[in-house]
Amino acid sequence: MAEGILSRIKERMTIFSKTEKKIAAYILMHAELIPNITTKELANKANVSEASVIRFAKAIGIGSFKSFKIALAQELVTNEEYITDFSIIQKKDSPYELFQKVVHVNRGAIDLLSSSLEKKELERAVHVLKKARKIIFFGVGGSSIAAMDAIYKFTKLGFSAEFSQDFHYMLSLIPYLTDQDVFVAISMSGETKDVLDLAQFAQKKGATLIAITNINKSSLYKKANIRLATPIVEKDFRVGSITSRMTQLTVIDSLYISLFNSIGKGVIEQYQEAREEMVKLRR
User: N or C: which end of the chain has fewer CB within 10 A?
Assistant: First the structure.
């Protein structure tokens, strides 16, 4: 559909019937809730009949309410103004309604990740990481959360892994890298200067550059030896990194689980030992 569903609804407000306007108004005000509610729930919210909800979907050119919900979900994932844009303050949603919206957009972003991330690139990344002598992760802002998460997970697997938010400390590590090492650069935009500078330096020393970045042909995307592409689900001007962070964490989790699946038998004893010590130290 070339024209967005929400735009279509807005344009037809003047020609909708009284009942259709009530449904349309609720959808426009609470779009993120719609993919997760039933015809009965929407009917109750808009104070109309279930039959009216079904007819509304057909009135805007969609065969069923189920198809309407699917199409709207796809549109919302790539149109984040309802959650991460500053216009959110114009709506007086309850905390639980906002919770439902966050759940929806995060779920949608992860679903889209299946389309943006290539199977061969993921397999290459796992192969390279498995053989790595040292792995350095780096990201700034919201992307630093994914880098920190990676450190905890990869260290548990016995890898020599490093991350710090201190750019100069990270810079001091790069000269010791070789072609046996991996630099994992994490950036939503793929244009963050600190990330690009360290990534380029690491490549110069022979390290393999793995990029976890949006599938938008950014500078980082172009430089990378291996690209773990995330979907474009947020704008640069936003309240905070929400859906993009979830896709980055999902990529990290996938790498971790894949490596554990491959080398898990060799580290299970250490896992158990760490677990036992953790239990002893609980207070």
Answer: C
